[in-house]
């Protein structure tokens, strides 16, 4: 089954074409990120206007690069929430139009579940791909600019939300800390890069880590739940930067300790969930899943638990249309095209 997936929940305009839920035939993503850089964050109105301009060219390019015509597509899928309302409307209305005019089924996908299914995607033919055995039950950590959520998934379409952030999302805090350190937007990659300077370019896991003289808080790490809170950590960094100690430590050391603090909390709660729900696989998704320190730490701990760890292939952690098509294939959450509504605050 060939599904065309549309993703416009934040600043990206993505259209991906996926065969049988795994094999990417094309995955075109256009981001308006550069337009937002000068504001240090996404400006919703600017994002939605760009998406209106981009959706048709991106759709056209995706079909071209998959060497498909619309007649070859078996179904349309769209991320209908959570996200920015103006942005969501662009994707949802285009998906409804395609479904009605082509008389093809329409699948409605939760954007966050799309991040989970990015782990099923491969650029190769599925027959060439080994070592990709995701086993249920699995625990998913979704960490992006807008979300930090832990899910237990017993089978396709069977989710239990375990907890999430009570204030700022992990990616949002990376972005804010980067801003106070005078680094660019988005903050995650910038923090990761300068944190590496502190350890002379070597990616070290915790047990070999270089000791920093700064100690930032690990909020809620010991609490017996699956919730997170990162606002206090962000404030601690802001206070440190505004104090005279900043000059002593420098940006690299602060970035290193901040990244370690946030990763410690994410890893600790994910492992607690994996143990409690007997997870055979742990998957991560969302923009922050691109962070190599997070991957390294989770890998070390999952190996001890003998739990498989999966993260999306390069370029698939960020928002894209292929992950929406993959989720649609496995969930088959059919929607009535004339009834589907964008839902900015969609939960699980
Ligand atoms: O999933 P995503 O592309 O968009 C949302 O749905 O939010 O995630 C974007 C977020 C940004 O906050 C960005 O700073 C963060 O992902 N990010 C990273 C890294 N790459 C992107 N955070 C930490 N380390 C990275 N390497
Ligand atoms: Zn996302």
Brief characterization of the structure:
With 348 residues, the chain is α/β, with parallel strands linked by helices.
Q: How would you describe this protein?
A:
There is one protein chain. The chain has 348 residues and is an alpha/beta fold. Helices cover 41% and strands 19% of the residues. It is built from ten helices and eleven strands. The strands form two sheets. It has a six-stranded mixed sheet with strand order 3-2-1-4-5-11, with helices on both faces. Helix 5 runs parallel beside helix 7 (231-242) and helix 6 packs across helix 8 (245-276). The two termini are 26 Å apart. The mean pLDDT is 92. It binds 5'-O-[(R)-(carboxyoxy)(hydroxy)phosphoryl]adenosine and zinc ion. Zinc ion (ZN) is lined by residues 111, 115, 144, 286, 319. Zinc ion binds next to helix 4.
Radius of gyration: 20 Å
Structural class, from helix and strand content? alpha/beta
- What level of helicity do the residues show? 40-55%
Mean pLDDT, to the nearest integer, reads 92
- What would you call the shape? globular
Bound molecules: 5'-O-[(R)-(carboxyoxy)(hydroxy)phosphoryl]adenosine, zinc ion
Question: How far apart, in Å, are the first and last alpha carbons?
Answer: 26 Å
Number of helices: 10
Largest sheet: 6 strands, mixed
Topology as a string of helices (H) and strands (E) = EEEHHEHEHEEEHHHHEHEHE
Order of the strands making up the biggest sheet:
3-2-1-4-5-11
Which parts are unreliable, with pLDDT below 50 for 5 consecutive residues or more? none
Beta content comes to 15-25%
Strand tally: 11
């Amino acid at each position: 089954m060939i599904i065309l997936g549309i993703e416009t929940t934040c600043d990206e305009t993505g259209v991906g074409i996926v065969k049988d839920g795994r094999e990417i035939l094309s995955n075109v993503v256009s981001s308006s990120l550069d337009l937002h850089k000068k504001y240090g964050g996404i400006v919703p109105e600017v994002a939605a206007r760009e998406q209106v301009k981009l959706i048709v060219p991106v759709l056209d390019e995706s079909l071209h690069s998959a060497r498909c015509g619309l007649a070859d597509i078996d179904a349309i899928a769209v991320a209908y929430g959570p996200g920015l309302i103006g942005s969501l409307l662009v994707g949802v209305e285009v998906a409804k139009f395609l479904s009605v005019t082509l008389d093809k089924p329409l699948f409605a996908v939760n954007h966050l579940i799309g991040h989970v299914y990015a782990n099923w995607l491969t650029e190769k033919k599925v027959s060439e791909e080994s070592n990709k055995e995701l086993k249920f039950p699995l625990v998913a950590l979704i960490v992006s600019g807008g979300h930090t959520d832990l899910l237990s998934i017993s089978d396709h379409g069977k989710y239990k939300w375990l907890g999430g952030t009570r204030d700022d999302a992990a990616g949002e805090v990376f972005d804010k800390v980067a801003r106070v350190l005078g680094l660019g937007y988005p903050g995650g990659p910038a923090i990761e890069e300068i944190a590496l300077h502190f350890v002379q370019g070597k990616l070290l896991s915790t047990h070999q880590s270089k000791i920093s003289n700064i100690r930032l808080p690990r909020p809620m790490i010991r609490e017996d739940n699956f919730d997170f809170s990162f606002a206090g950590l962000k404030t601690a960094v802001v206070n440190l930067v505004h104090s005279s100690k900043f000059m002593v430590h420098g940006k690299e050391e602060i970035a290193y300790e901040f990244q370690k603090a946030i990763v410690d909390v994410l890893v600790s709660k994910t492992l607690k969930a994996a143990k409690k729900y007997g997870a055979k696989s742990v998957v991560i998704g969302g923009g922050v899943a691109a962070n190599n320190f997070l991957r390294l730490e989770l890998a070390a701990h999952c190996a001890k638990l003998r739990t498989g760890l999966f993260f999306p292939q390069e370029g698939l952690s960020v928002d894209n249309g292929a992950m929406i098509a993959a989720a649609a294939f496995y969930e088959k959450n059919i929607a009535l095209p004339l009834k589907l509504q964008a839902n900015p605050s969609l939960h699980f």
